[in-house]
């Protein structure tokens, strides 16, 4: 790895037992070698103490993630914005695969058409794709989604038991986004259970392994190609039809591009929604006064949403980027063909940007968080969760049925790390009737 500044890693410290709860671990989970700072699985569960020590060393650090990927980790808000908007730090999936295959021992890049949406492309290709997709995902179409999403949410809440503990993730956070996505795409009701199974395998494979993920991706790819052919023949009112018929100067998205856009919708719309719901409830379970505040002052919900996105957002480390030429990030100059990891979680808690960043404060004057990214790759669906709704919420009594536990680390996408403390917690609530 090429850099003009010497690496000054934190001291070697013991790695806590994997059975320990992050809140009980007093030591930052960092192991250093001469090559890079090796970050353990505990880092994914509770990164805050690690980032605190790294910030003392500077804004950019040579690290090896638990997945085995080695590269440069950005923890500073200003540098993160620089990287996210720098045209020389690119997301070309083919270049990233080449770098991984030639420089990363024991790490494999996902090799599927479904891993090549506009999320992993650069201009001018990215510009063309985003322009076409935007035709199917307009502000008007987003507004039209809201009533149906609210109905699905109400139905899921109504189906919950009115007494005893309820697993929020399995009964609400997981089924809500996948049901909405199925309706968006016009997936027939008879196919939805299978579609959910494929989605869960691809996104949450865990110990099932790479071959299982690729098999599920292949099956979903075959199914989507058939569905796309049907929509080309007889378009409907769903978003899949919108993607199929969208044109720009007479050009349409190819079949491969439409399939990859569906996969992007699954990654960006499903996993992140699960994580945001889990994160927010985890935070509110630990701060019941905040929950009472929102019930009594629903006009604060928009500000609360922005603050929870900042404080414990749905994505920890942004999708992979790589350098195409020598670039200076903070006080570190990095050569070409290096991987760059932008920690949105660290940037959103940078004390140089946010006063008392560890605290939840609904009255922050200028949130300016990076939970949706920044630059040309900023989340296309960001307006949807920001739609302001004043809805009646009957009294609820959230209580943890047990100490929240973490779901296994994401295995399907090596280059996108959902937030560690996040929707990966199985928190439980006791809900009042009609909650």
Structure description:
The chain is an alpha+beta fold. The chain has a single domain (about 20-430), classed as Cytochrome p450 (Orthogonal Bundle), CATH 1.10.630. About 40% of the residues lie in helices and about 10% in strands. The chain has helices at about 40-45, 50-55, 75-85, 95-105, 125-135, 140-160, 170-175, 175-185, 190-205, 210-235, 240-245, 255-285, 290-295, 300-310, 345, and strands spanning about 30, 35-40, 60-65, 70-75, 90, 165, 245-250, 250, 315, 320-325, 325-330, 330-335, 340, 415-420, 430. The protein is globular. The N and C termini lie far apart (about 55 Å).
Strand order of the largest sheet: 1-2-3-4-13-10-5
User: What order do the SSEs take from the amino end to the carboxyl end, as H and E?
Assistant: EEHHEEHEHHHEHHHHHEEHHHEEEEEHEE
Q: Ends: how far apart? A: 53 Å
Shape: globular
Write a compact overview of the structure shown.
The chain is an alpha+beta fold and 435 residues long. It is 42% helix and 10% strand. The protein has one domain (22-429): Cytochrome p450 (Orthogonal Bundle), CATH 1.10.630.10.
Q: What's the helix and strand layout?
A:
Layout: E1 30-32, E2 37-39, H1 41-45, H2 48-57, E3 60-64, E4 70-74, H3 77-85, E5 89-90, H4 93-103, H5 125-136, H6 139-158, E6 166-167, H7 168-173, H8 175-185, H9 192-203, H10 210-233, H11 239-245, E7 247-248, E8 251-252, H12 255-285, H13 288-296, H14 301-311, E9 315-317, E10 321-323, E11 327-329, E12 332-334, E13 339-342, H15 344-347, E14 417-418, E15 428-429
Parallel strand pairs: 2-3, 4-13
Antiparallel strand pairs: 1-2, 3-4, 5-10, 6-15, 7-8, 9-14, 10-13, 11-12
Helix pairs in contact: 5-11, 6-8, 8-12, 9-10, 10-12
């Amino acid at each position: 790895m090429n850099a003009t500044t010497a690496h000054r890693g934190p001291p070697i410290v013991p790695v806590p037992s994997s059975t320990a709860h992050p809140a009980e671990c007093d030591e930052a989970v960092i192991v250093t070698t001469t090559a890079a700072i090796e970050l353990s699985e505990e880092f994914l569960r509770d990164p805050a103490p690690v980032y605190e020590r790294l910030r003392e060393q500077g804004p950019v650090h040579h690290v090896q993630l638990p997945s085995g990927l080695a590269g440069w980790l950005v923890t500073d808000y200003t540098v993160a914005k620089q990287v996210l908007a720098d045209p020389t730090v690119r997301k070309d999936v083919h270049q990233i695969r080449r770098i991984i295959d030639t420089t990363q021992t024991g790490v494999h890049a996902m090799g599927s058409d479904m891993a090549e949406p506009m999320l992993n492309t650069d201009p001018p290709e990215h510009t063309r794709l985003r322009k076409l997709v935007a035709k199917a995902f307009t502000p008007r179409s987003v507004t039209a989604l809201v009533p149906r999403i609210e109905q699905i949410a109400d139905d899921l809440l109504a189906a919950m038991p009115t007494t005893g503990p309820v697993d929020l993730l399995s009964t609400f956070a997981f089924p809500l986004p996948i049901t909405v996505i199925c309706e968006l795409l016009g997936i027939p009701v008879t196919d939805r259970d299978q579609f959910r199974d494929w989605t869960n395998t691809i996104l949450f494979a865990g110990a099932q392994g790479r071959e299982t993920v690729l098999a599920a991706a292949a099956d979903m790819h075959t199914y989507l190609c058939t569905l796309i052919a049907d929509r080309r023949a007889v378009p409907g009112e769903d978003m899949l039809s919108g993607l199929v018929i969208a044109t720009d100067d007479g050009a349409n998205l190819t079949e491969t591009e439409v399939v990859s856009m569906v996969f992007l919708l699954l990654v960006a719309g499903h996993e992140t929604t699960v994580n945001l719901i889990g994160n927010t409830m985890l935070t509110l379970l630990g701060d019941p006064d905040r929950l009472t505040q929102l019930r009594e002052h629903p006009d604060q919900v928009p500000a609360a949403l922005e603050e929870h996105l900042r404080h414990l957002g749905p994505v920890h480390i942004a999708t992979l980027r790589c350098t195409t030429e020598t670039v200076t990030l903070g006080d570190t100059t990095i050569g070409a063909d290096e991987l760059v990891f932008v920690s949105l979680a660290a940037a959103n808690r940078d004390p140089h940007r946010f006063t008392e960043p560890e605290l939840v404060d609904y009255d922050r004057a200028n949130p300016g968080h990076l939970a949706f990214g920044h630059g040309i790759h900023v989340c296309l669906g960001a307006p949807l969760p920001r739609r302001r709704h004043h809805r009646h919420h009957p009294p609820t009594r959230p209580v943890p049925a047990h100490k929240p536990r973490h779901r296994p680390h994401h295995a399907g996408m090596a280059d996108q790390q959902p937030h560690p403390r996040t929707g990966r917690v199985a928190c439980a609530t006791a809900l009042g009737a009609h909650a």
